[in-house]
Design brief:
This protein is an alpha/beta fold. The chain has helices at about 15-25, 70-80; strands spanning about 5-10, 30, 40, 45-50, 60-65, 85, 105-110, 115-120. The protein is built from two helices and eight strands; from the N terminus they run βαββββαβββ. The strands form two sheets. A four-stranded mixed sheet has the order 1-4-3-2, with helices on one face.
Length: about 120
Amino acid sequence: MTARFNHTIIASTDPAEMAGFYRDLLEADQAPSWGPFHNVQLTDGVLLQFATPPMEFPPQHYAYLVDDDHFDRAYQKITDQQIPHWADPQRSQPGKINQGHGGRGVYLLDPSGHFLELLTRPYL
């Protein structure tokens, strides 16, 4: 069997809020939750588990590949909700998207301060 990504725990200040945010933006399915985890399942079966760790945590970067139609819907939500966003990871191009790698991309912060990237074409 080849290795495939299965799940990750995303440190969260409010796991329920984070699960809702990701579920809405990524159009993901709610999954059963247990213990400290609020879970969201992506289309490819990857499980995102949101939990509050017992210590402060640094922001992380999470990138999600979406198709063009999904990007349009997600970007509409971002703009409708007036979520700050940037075309670049340095945050020097606010309120814009990029046209990198033959597709489109956008960067934003989630409710716990992690840096999200939505892109329509993979880097490789």
